[in-house]
Amino acid sequence: MPCGARGCWDLEVDGRALARHLGQDAPTDAYGYALRVLDRATADDRPATAAVRGVVTALARGAAGLVNAHDPDAVSLGGLAAALRAAAPDDFAAAYAGGLMAFHRERPPPVLDAAHGDLGALHGAAAVGLDHITTEAAIADWYETRVRQR
Q1: CA distances from 97 to 10, 79, 142 (A)
Q2: How many CA atoms lie within 13 A of 98 on its CB side?
C-alpha cells in the first residue's frame, strides 16, 4: 500500500514505477513484476530498458539526497535496489554524482551492494530477536521462570 506522499521511493523505485513507465497498470506483485522487467531489460527489450533506466535514475537521486543530508561513509543497497543499479550502472553513477552537493567532501561515499542481499531484513530481525533474548534482564527472567522454579 503506497504511503500517499508524492515522490517517495515507494512510488518511484519499485514494480509499480516500472509499470507506470511502461504504460501498464500497477501489478499486484510489485517485486515479482520488477524482477520480470529486469529480466526483459537484460535481454535488450528497449521499453523495459528505458523503464529500468528511469527508475534507476530516481533511485540514485534519492540516494544522493540522503548522502547530502546524512554524510555517511558508505551507502549500501539491498534487495531490488541492488538489482536495479546492476541493470543500469552508468545511469546510476551519473544520477548519483549529479545529485551530490560538491562541498561535502572531495569524493562521494561509495555505493556498495548490501552483504545480505534480499535476506538483509530477515537477518536483521533475527539479530534483534537474539539481542532481545540474550540481554541480562531476559536471561535473569528465564532463570527465574525456568530453572529456579524446578
Answers
A1: 22, 22, 52
A2: 11
**Integer CA distances (angstroms), 148 to 40, 64, 137, 138, 142, in order:** 61, 55, 15, 14, 9
Contact 92, 127 (CB under 8 A): no
- Average pLDDT on 61-79 reads 93
pTM, 2 dp: 0.80
Does residue 4 surpass a pLDDT of 70?
no
Q: Residue 51: is it exposed, middle or buried by C-beta count within 10 angstroms (0-12/13-18/19+)?
A: buried
Ramachandran region of residue 26, left (φ > 0), alpha (ψ -120 to 50) or beta? beta
Phi, psi of 4 (to 5 degrees): 105, -15
Handedness of CA 130, 118, 116, 91 (dihedral sign): negative
C-alpha cell at 36: 520480470
